[in-house]
Prior knowledge:
Distance between the termini: 15 Å
Number of strands: 4
Number of helices: 13
Oligomer: single chain
Number of domains: 1
Amino acid sequence: MVEPVALVALAIDAVVxxxxxxxxxxxxxxxxxxxxxxxxxxRWNRPDTPPGMRRAxxxxxxxxxxxxxxxxxLLLQTALGELHLGWIGVxxxxxxxxxxxxxxxxxxxxxxxxxxxxxxxxxxxxxAIVGRDTAALDRHGVARAAIESLAESFCDGIAAxxxxxxxxxxxxxWAYKAINTADSMIGHREERWRAFGWAAARLDDALNLAPARxxxxxxxxxxxxxxxxxxxxxxxxxxxxxxWTEAAMAGALGLRLAGPIAYDGVVHHKxxxxxxxxxxxxxxxxxxxxxxxxxCLMLWIIAAVFAVLGGSIAP
Length: 315
């Protein structure tokens, strides 16, 4: 049996997540990426700069991020090997890039607030995990928003980082986190970011192509169905990847997700994904969390199989 780097990283994340006390003291590693992106965006993404130049400067921002994330990951992985800390050190440094516990801990309060009919608290809790307007959401809208975020973040926060850890070790997982952070900050279609964030958005799409489809399959397996909706509706989302996990979850739960969504007071008329009920409930959200737990368990099994049959991630 070779070194179980991914399995140990998943276990640490499941047990402790990223503790609030640790976050208060040192923040989170993605904060470094966010600072680099913010500084580049403020300096290089000026309205008076031609779009072509802004796109080129956005590409340069991505290159700088990859140098820090992948280059730093490679240096650390090599150093750990030379210090004979090997796979244990790699697992410890990979752990913060996973978000099993954090995602679960952020979604559960939404379900709890809905179960006690506290719509104000539910809106506040879901507002911490989604970018849409939440002040006018009814209880069904809150539940749908939480379920959609859970489904999409299963890929971005767990399946995709794990995939790139298995493929590329520390350089792989932290390069993914850097690009995913860039996409969330600047990979938007609004005029301000369209040119500058083009490279981040396109690279994030590419890095999520395989993980999103794997994640969707796991959600269908975890939910015991949803295959028909997955194949039919996965491409209805504006993102080439997010629709896969949302369609899988919608099919598994028998719900309609997505649909019209408001951002900054503007309603965007998006296609519905799924053909079931639109009136999602706290019970549906609890069922989505159960599917999520089972899908995470299947990722653990994949990591264990890789440890038995695959190659070592550590040097």
